[in-house]
């Protein structure tokens, strides 16, 4: 009967993996399947737990890195959230200095600042996002080179 618990745990972990897509929970699901196999063979609980730990560990530290490398070589990673804003063009809404300012970026108003000791940027200036620092966009003139990223349309 213990094998059913392990099998149920493996199913739950596999379903949660679909949500997370980190290839971590699926490795634990594999460990739970190994433990279910041990339970089905009548092994004591400590052997089942050991099978779970060893199998999960091997999958996590041996198989997962290889899977991630393989996946990344076949698919380009798309930046999301704040990281996706780096390199984009914006317009200054409120003078941007080293300390504060406001820009319109991708239809949203963002707090912004310039790099240390950079000249302030007046209202209406087109700027490029150089990086995101917390919830603040660090910007430079539109001719400033983005850090490792091609510009994208606003």
TrEMBL record:
It is a multi-pass membrane protein. The chain crosses the membrane at residues 44-67. SUPFAM superfamilies: NfeD domain-like. Pfam families: NfeD (PF01957). It is found in: Membrane. One of its GO terms (biological process) is proteolysis. GO terms for molecular function: peptidase activity. The keyword Transmembrane helix applies. PANTHER family: INNER MEMBRANE PROTEIN YBBJ. This is Membrane protein implicated in regulation of membrane protease activity.
């Amino acid at each position: 009967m213990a094998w059913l618990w392990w099998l149920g745990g493996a199913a739950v972990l596999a379903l949660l993996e679909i949500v997370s897509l980190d290839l971590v929970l699926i490795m634990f699901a594999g460990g739970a399947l190994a433990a279910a196999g041990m339970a089905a063979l009548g092994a004591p609980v400590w052997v089942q737990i050991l099978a779970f730990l060893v199998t999960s560990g091997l999958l996590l530290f041996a198989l997962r890195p290889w899977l991630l490398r393989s996946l990344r070589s076949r698919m380009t990673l798309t930046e999301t959230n704040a990281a996706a804003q780096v390199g984009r063009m914006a317009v200054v809404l409120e003078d941007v200095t080293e300390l504060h300012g406001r820009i319109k970026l991708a239809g949203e108003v963002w707090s912004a600042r310039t790099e240390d000791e950079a000249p302030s940027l007046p209202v209406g200036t087109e700027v490029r996002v150089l990086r995101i620092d917390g919830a603040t966009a660090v910007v430079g003139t539109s001719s400033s080179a983005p850090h490792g990223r091609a510009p994208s349309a606003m």
